[in-house]
Every structure is written in structure tokens, then in C-alpha cells.
Amino acid sequence: MRQLLWGVASAANQIEGAYDVDGKGLSTADVLPGAKDRHKYIFNPKEMIDKSFDYYPSYKGVDFYHRYKEDIALYAELGITCYRMSIAWSRIFPKGDEVTPNEAGLSFYDDVFDECLKFGIEPIVTLSHFEVPLHLVKQYNGWADKRLIAFFERYCKVVFERYRDKVKYWLTFNEVNSATKLHFHSGATIPEKDTNLEELGYQLLHNQAVAASKANKLCHEICPKAKIGCMVQYSPVYPYSAHPEDVLEANNFERDRELFALDLFVKGKYPFYSKRLFKEKNINLDITQEELSLLVEFPADFISFSYYMSLSYGRKEIITELTNGNIFSGLKNPHLQSSEWGWQIDPVGLRFALNRLYELYQVPLFIVENGIGVTEELMDGTVDDDYRIEYLRQHIEQLEEAVSDGVDVIGYCMWAGTDLISNSTGEMRKRYGLIYVDTDDNGNGTYNRYKKKSYYWYQAFINDYLTREK
């Protein structure tokens, strides 16, 4: 049985800031407005992309770009053994289609990785975490254009060669199953009027799957000791009742939103039910035999996933009160409590998720996001976040139960190390971190860091785990 990695997680566009520093180009994340405007425009990017807003959260993030040594020192004190982070593609290739990379961007991540390794922290690196150079949207319409596959491959080759001695775990795309629904946010694409949106979503997913297979191939060639995985948002889907149609609807819901992508990225082939699905939805994809062969030959080495909640689903006629969620929502489960943002809290669901995914795919699993967002205030230099401690304790207990069940788990990264900009809402007040960052929804504040009570709990837990495992 492997010794688990324990860490924290973040994304470049939510923490780095310095959006135009040292040659970085604009990315898709850099045009997303702050909380008061985001919901209006996030699903209408055609209006948003050239509009000026009062505040862009990614411009400042939490200033990790200038404070990474301070943050990594805090992580070292915390005792973590891994840090899941991402590279901003637009720092390496500001426009995305250049031939020569930006040396200043490469040097920045050299420094970040070196700082992590100095403290024995393993970098877990996502290549594209809801961040694509904006030029690729304006010039090519993002992942709708297969030319992005070659641009992504070039980017991967550069970073694999540069960091092959520093990074042992790579992830291709963040929550890649969202590409079928979030065409701009995940697929960097602005749909044209009268587009078959479902067809577009599956084409985006296909193109990213091909790009991921090419990245997998490159990684194995350039970094033979490294592993490269896919990353999905996964929430187990419970039938709303024992009614046979509820069971069938829940099964179809899980297939559509989660398992379809995993079949492509891990099994390397389209699921058996895709023929009927595409026929009924009038979906015709641009797929070549060469691409299908590539998917089979170079699948992901492991599955990484975010887990925040479970979902419930059933017959259309009983769909009344829906819950909020991370990408997808479902029916309100009366047996579960919800967070302040309506995300249902289900620790046992994590054990179920781990067993379900391992049973279906038989590859190692890595939980790279799990946490709770709460409105918090700094009091006397700290936050007494007992609710976060209880959330982490209950989820980690279920993770350990899954390991005892026989599931092969690489590690666990809680979301997040420091507070950061919420991806879904563009807010700072939705705080996830073990470390409080003094800034608000409009970027006001000192940006100073303060340890929360949960920081010390997680520190003690990791120390106890590592002591037990020696």
C-alpha cells in the first residue's frame, strides 16, 4: 500500500495576479469580471469578451506571483508533501500560437518548483486550469478549432523539457468534463448564433481528449519517470428514490456529465451508448481514425478529481428544487446539509466516489480538490473555522475507509492553501483557505496572510499520519 501524499491546491488564475507582468499575455480568465458582473456574462461571453468592467479578479489574485516564497514557506510549516498548482499557459506563450516561449514565464515556474522542492513538497502541475491565451479565442475560437491541439502540444513539449527533473505528476485539463457545458470557461470558445451547443460541447471535449493523448505521449517520452493524469469534477449521482425511472435518470445523468469524459481520457474510446446519444441529439463530430487510435494508445495514467458534493437526480416530473453545485446541480437531498452557497455536504459520498471510480477504471486515483467555501472575518489575527476542521476530518475519515476498501489512492489535496478568488463566483468572500488573505471582493486590503485554526488542525493531522506511516 502506497503512502499517501497530503497537500493543498490552487490555480494560477485564482492566486497569481500579475496578469501583465514579465511578458504574460491575457488569458480567458483575465476577461472574467468580478462578483457583481460575473453571473450575467459568464454564459454570454460574446458580449463579455471586449467589454470593460470595473474589476477583474485575476488581475490581482492574492498576489502569489510576488509572495510565492512566503506562501510556500507557510506550506512547508504546515507539513504538506505535495502542492497541486497550475501553470498559466499565457505566461509561457502569451498569445498561444508563437514558436518561441517567454523565458520570464518559464523562469518564474522554475523558481516556484525549486522553492517547493527545497522543502520536500512535490509539485502536482495542471497544464491548463480554466486558462487559455485569449488570442487563441479571438483568432481561432479556442478548442473548437483543431489547430489548438498543435499549439497545446508545443506548449507541453516546452514545459516537459524544462521541468522534467522537477515535476513528477502532471494533469492535462482541469475538470475537463465541463467542456461539454461551459463552452467559454472550459473550452475557450464563443458559440456562434444557431450553433448546436451540444454538438459543440462534445467536439470541444474530443479535441481536448486528442490534445491530452498527445501530451501523454510526450510526457512519457520526455519525462519517463513522471505520471500524467486527467482531471474531472466528480460527484456521485444518487437516484432520488427507488423508482426504476429515477435510477435510470440518475445513471444517465452521471454518464452524460462525468463518465463520458472519463471513458475518453482513461479508456481511450467512446462509450457504447454514444451512438444512440449522438443520433438522438443530431450530433455529428469531426473525428478521424488517427485520432481514435491516439486515444487508445496514450490514455491517462491516473484519474484526479475534485469532490465537493454528491448529487441526486430522477424523473423530470419530480425536478423541483435544485441545489447549487460545482458545474452541475441536482435535486435537493433531504438527508444532507448544505454550505452557505448551497453545495450539499456529503463525506460518505467521497468514499462512494472513490470506490465507484476505481471499480469502473482500475487506475490510481488522486483527490486534488476538496473543501468548503465560507464567509469569514479575521478576528484577533485568526479565524476560528471549526466547521472547516469538521468538514476535513469527516472527508479524510471516508478517504481512509476507501483506502481500507482497497482503492489505490495517490493522495489528497484540500482546496485551498490560502484564500483565493472563487472560480465560479469571482468572489474573495467565499473563502476556502487554511490561511486567511486580507483582501476583499474589490481587491482592497493588505494581502497579508494569517493562519486559521484549521491550519493547525491539518498540520497536526499530517504530522500524525507521517509518524504512523514511518
UniProtKB/TrEMBL annotation:
GO terms for molecular function: beta-glucosidase activity. The keyword Hydrolase applies. InterPro entries: GH, Glyco_hydro_1, Glyco_hydro_1_AS. One of its GO terms (biological process) is carbohydrate catabolic process. Keywords: Glycosidase, Hydrolase. The keyword Hydrolase applies. The active site is at E369 (nucleophile). GO terms for cellular component: cytosol. Belongs to the glycosyl hydrolase 1 family. This is 6-phospho-beta-glucosidase. It comes from Enterococcus columbae DSM 7374 = ATCC 51263.
